[in-house]
Amino acid sequence: MYTVSTSLASSPGVCPSTDSVLVTVHPDIQNEINISICEDETYSFGGQNISLPGVYTNSLQTQYGCDSIVTLNLDVNTIYFDTLNVAICQNESYTLGTQNLTSSGLYTEIFQSISGCDSSVSINLTVNPLPILSCPDTLICLGDTAQLLPMGAQTYSWDPLIGNLDNNGLLICSPLSSTMIELTGIDSNSCESSINVNVNVQDLPSIELIPSDYEICLGESVQLSASGGTNYLWETPIFSNNSLENQVITPDTSTFIYLAGFDDLGCQNNDSMILVVYELPVLSITPAQSICLGESVLIEVSGANSYNWIPEGDGEDFQFAPTESFDLWVTGTDLNNCSESIQTSVIVHPNPEAGITASPMLTTSDVPHITFENTSVGGESFILSTGDGSYYDLFDSQIEHSYPYSEGDYVVELYVENEFGCSDSIDILIQIKGAEIYYVPNSFTPDGDEHNNTFQAVFTSGFDPSQYEMTIYNRWGEELIRITDSNEYWDGTYEGRKCAEGTYIYKIHYVIPDTNETKTLTGHVNLLR
Fold first, then answer.
1. Does residue 66 belong to any structural domain of this protein?
2. Stretch 462-475: mean pLDDT, rounded?
3. pTM of the entire structure?
4. Are 153 and 132 in contact (CB under 8 A)?
């Protein structure tokens, strides 16, 4: 509804008038449609059968006589007739429509596309075989490395991945126990298969190196024994046969010993030790000595902690007086219980045996002459002191020495020395007594008066009365009488008859008691009547 105001055209605003007019406006119709058809179909539009996709228009008049435009958007959907080459792996399937395909061949399926058009799809199906994998089980020793080289595929993977993997799928691993590993291989057709590979781990043998001792002294030997294996190899030190089960070693310094042992499968284990070698104590001892019999000797030893003496001795020093030459061995032991021996000698030289005789040892002052005889044994030089201030140094047999003509006692000493400087001495006593006192008359008168009727030797000193004998002879040497008692006498008779006057011979034997020397007195006696 519209209101219209008017006025004169020549005079605007003059004679105005107002009126109402109802106006109806019919719209133009512009319509757009979207249509899809299949490739083998047509669409009728504006008197045309259209089969090609595109935009089409058609002008029409409405009932009110207004122009109207219809726009057609035509989409032509493709009908598929495809053949596809498809490859799958053995044990896989391919679904084609309602078909589940597992074998090689050519297969066709009719189905509607998403646009509702019927289509045909043909499948040229190839079923590829799975790769045939190979990798042998492996036996290794604990601590060794297994190299697992797979074959039969192009790429590989291991589960679990317990080592290092190279581009060729080689797995290098060192499991601590027997392990099963899954090997997966993919070939050039992307087909995949898996196998299990066992890595068996052999425990190492329990190898033990058993020494007879861990600490020794220089020069000692050690027995080495191996156990726990089937075969052995002594790697250090070097033995003449390093595969023996038992060895003997005598090292000169501390030594590292290394033993490798193997079981039946060749698995190796080792044991080792350090054999400690202690140096021997360095001993020093008093050098060899020479002594004379009866002298003492002091022997000292050092360089150890304790000592053992053979044949005798104790401690660090020993003083004794040996009676014969001998070798002395001392074994010293240090704090490591190592021992060393050292030797010294004691040479015992014999002493000379001094000996002397004197003849006589007791004499009288009227004959103070003594003969000394050297009876020493083993001497080389001699010195004789006679006790009266005289000395003899060249006394090897006999010497006659005269003492003063007076009574006295003298101590005689003989000093003897041998080539070793050993000496001996001996003392003897020489006694010089006064001369014996006696009287022997040279005549007698057996005439019966009171004077000088008998013949008798009178001793006042210096003789032994029990060892006395006097014999009377006539001029022709005939024995007339023998008297053995110093108190008896000769009365001038022979067998009871008087002997004639004349000269007679007497012999008197007596013994000096101090010297046990026998003396004889011979003389003449005159018988007068």
1. no
2. 89
3. 0.52
4. no
Beta bridge partners of 373: 357, 398
Which among 517, 355, 365 is positioned nearest to 434, based on CA atoms?
Answer: 365
- Measured from the Cβ of residue 274, the count of other Cβ atoms closer than 10 Å reads 11
Q: Closest Cα partner for 512 from 469, 467, 470, 456?
A: 467
**What is the number of alpha carbons within 13 Å of residue 303 lying toward its C-beta?**
19
pLDDT at position 371, please? Answer: 95
Strands (E) in 160-230, as ranges, are 163-165, 171-173, 179-186, 192-202, 208-211, 215-217, 222-227
What range does the domain containing 176 cover? 138-202
On whether residue 68 sits in a domain, the answer given is no
Domain finish residue from 329, 349, 369: 349
Residue that the structure tokens 């030893």 belong to: 301
**Mean per-residue pLDDT for 2-24?**
64
Cα 100 to the center of its chain, rounded Å: 83
Give me the residue label for tokens 């005289």.
Answer: 390
Where residue 162 sits, what CATH number does that domain have? 2.60.40.10
Summarize the confidence of residues 261-269 as an average pLDDT. 95
CA 510 to chain CA mean position, Å: 93
Same domain, 255 and 292: no
Number of C-alpha atoms within 13 angstroms, CB side, residue 254?
7
- Please report, for residues 185, 195, 229, 304, the alpha-carbon distance to residue 155 in angstroms, rounded to integers and kept in the order given: 6, 14, 42, 77
Length in residues, the chain: 529
CA distance 440 to 460: 12
- Could you report the per-residue pLDDT of 82-139, keeping only the tens digit for each? 889 999 999 999 998 889 999 999 999 887 777 778 778 899 999 999 999 999 999 9
Task: Give the chain's largest Cα–Cα span.
Answer: 270
Q: Is residue 35 part of a domain?
A: no
Beta strands, E only, 212-316:
215-217, 222-227, 231-236, 246-249, 255-262, 268-278, 284-285, 289-292, 297-302, 306-310
Q: How many domains does the chain have?
A: 6
The predicted pLDDT at position 15 comes to 65
Does 410 score more than 80 pLDDT?
yes
Rounded distance between C-alpha atoms, residue 447 and residue 173, angstroms: 163
Cα-Cα end-to-end distance for the chain: 255
| Torsion angles phi and psi, residue 467, rounded to 5 | -120, 60
* 426 plus 441 within the same structural domain: no
Which of 377, 398, 433 is where one domain is finished? 433
Torsions phi, psi for 478 (to 5 deg): -85, 135
